[in-house]
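Hey,
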Amino acid sequence: MSSANLKENYSLRHLISFRVGGEARFFCEIETNEQFLEVKKKAIQQNKPFFILGRGTNVVISDKGFDGYIVKLSRSFSELSIEGSILKAKTATPLSRIARSSIQNNLSGMHLLAGIPGTLGGAIYMNAGAYGQEISQTVIEVKSINDQGQIITRDNAACSFSYRHSIFQENKECILEASFQLTLGSKDALEKEMNTVMQKRRDSQPLEYPNAGSVFKRTPQDFPGALIEKAGLKGFSIGGAMVSPKHANFIINTGNATAQNIYDLTSVIIETVFKQTGITLEREIIFLGDF
């Protein structure tokens, strides 16, 4: 990799959906598996943290920056193919494209994921889901690459999927691609169902403000939004970060929020909900760096 590809002290605000945060000590856009391994090796040699950034829709980077390597996978990692009822896609393919392509081919099973503004890799990493569909429900296999350059293929069971969890959160491999078993459906019916869900999102979520989607994971007792609202925190703000008056499990940047504002607000929510209910909310957003 030429040294020109590796940028130092690179601002990531424009790549983060919240539009907040500091600089990455090192940043580069990856074109090939070989480049990925080269940068990962540098991080290991320097004992620096390493993070793969998708579309930045579930991440907040500290205002102080991230003293490590952040890589973004290029368009060469964004491909999609459909053969019969099998859909295959590479890791940087947007979920919206996957959902719409499946509908165009009369395939059901991923069409309700259209409104999740992330990539396939991030969705598998977090086992993302919406409106009763989770990415894990249709996965046949996932290919990833480890630090030694080995390509590893896992079937669904070996991915250890559970609610907002996969094995990739532990092994730190880079997800490369995945295949899915979908079922035949009616294009018109699937499109109608997708449009209904998309309208629900627009009606119930503060999409007009920078945000990172759901802030907290679901609890066995109740939905996080309901718990936060019952705690009287709807509309509560710290600096420019506010609990959305529209949906309490969303934090919005009202214009001048900092990464620290967002983190502090999540901390207040966790503390307040626990004091009132004894329930500990768990953050779904990934916070990188020093807070």
